[in-house]
C-alpha cells in the first residue's frame, strides 16, 4: 500500500502544480541529498543556489504564489507544500521553507506597496533569504513561547527608530538578505523590515542544534543601536503582535505540511527496506513487530494529513486559525514523531546512519515538536480556551 495524498477539493491548476513539484523533488532534488550533510548548520549557500536554479528552470520557484502575486488557497497550498517536503531539500529548492514562506505570507498581507516592491519581490523570485527576529535568550529572561516577555526595545528618534536587544534561534540569519525584527515601544510591539547584513546586527554564534535542514542554522544575535527609517516599520507602532498573528497560524500549518511530506518519504523508505531485508527465514515485513509499526504509521500519516486539511479549510473560511493551528501543530508534530521513530526502528542499524534520509527526518521532526511553540504550550493555551468557554456557558 502506498500513501495516497488528498486531491479532493483542490483545483486542477493546484493539482498540476503539486504534481510538477512532486516530480521535481523526487527526480532532481532527492539525488542531491547526500551533499546536504556536509554542515551541521544546514546546506551550503552553493547547494542552495544550485537547487533554486533548478527550480527556476522548471518554473517552480515559490510555486504556491501565482504570477499575479496572489496565493493559492491554504488547502491548495497544502497539496503543494506536502509534496515539497518529500525531501528535506525540497522546500529550500522551491523557496517555501521556514522562515521565508511565513515571511512572504506576512508581507503579502500587510506590507505597503513600497515595502513589497523593495523586499517581497526579491523574496518571491528567490533572490534572497530572510530571517524573523522574535525569540530571545531564555537565560536573559527574554521572549520565547511568551512574546509578552520581549525585551528588545525600539524608540523613535526623529524620522528613524533605534532598536537594541538580543535575539536567539534566529533561523537563517547568517546569509539572509532581509529580516523582520520585533521590538517593543511605549505603544506596544512593533515590526520592522531591515536589509541584511547590517553592521548594527551582530551574529554572536550559530547554535549547534539537532536539526540541519535550514541554511544558516539558528543564530544568537545582538542588535546594537540599529537605526531604521520610520517607513520601514510594518503598519503602526503597537501593532506588532497583531501582525504576528497574521503570520503565525499559516506558518505553523506550513511546518505541518512540509514535515508530513518528509515522513511520507521516510515511510516509503522503511517499507522498501523491510520488504527487501530478510531475518529468521522471512522478510521483516512478515514479522508482526515490524509490520504493525508500519500499519500504525499509515494511520498516523493519514490522520496528520486530515488534520492539515481541516486546519487549512478553517483558514480558508476566514478563521484567524489560532485554535485550529494549535491543534494541528500538536497533533501533527506528535504523530510525525511517532512515524519517524518507527521508521528508524524498523530499519534497525540502517535507520540511525546517514546512509538514508530517514535519520535526518527523525532529527528534524524532533525539533519540530518544539519550534513554533512546544506541544505543552499549545495544550496549555487550548486548555485556557476550554476553561473560558465553560465559564461563558456557565456564568456565575
From TrEMBL:
One MF annotation (Gene Ontology) recorded for this entry: acyl-CoA dehydrogenase activity
InterPro entries noted in UniProt: Acyl-CoA_dehydrogenase, Acyl-CoA_Oxase/DH_mid-dom, Acyl-CoA_Oxase/DH_mid-dom_sf, AcylCo_DH-like_C, AcylCo_DH/oxidase_C, AcylCoA_DH/ox_N_sf, AcylCoA_DH/oxidase_NM_dom_sf
A Pfam family matched in the record: Acyl-CoA_dh_M
Known cofactor(s): FAD
Keyword Endoplasmic reticulum among record annotations: no
Biological process terms in GO annotation: fatty acid beta-oxidation using acyl-CoA dehydrogenase
Boundaries of every Acyl-CoA dehydrogenase/oxidase C-terminal domain copy: 238-385
Keyword Chloroplast: no
Keywords: FAD, Flavoprotein, Oxidoreductase
Annotated ranges, domain Acyl-CoA oxidase/dehydrogenase middle: 131-209
Gene Ontology CC: cytoplasm
Family stated for the protein in its record: Belongs to the acyl-CoA dehydrogenase family.
Designated name of the protein: Acyl-CoA dehydrogenase
Highest classification ranks of the organism: Bacteria, Pseudomonadati, Pseudomonadota, Alphaproteobacteria, Rhodobacterales
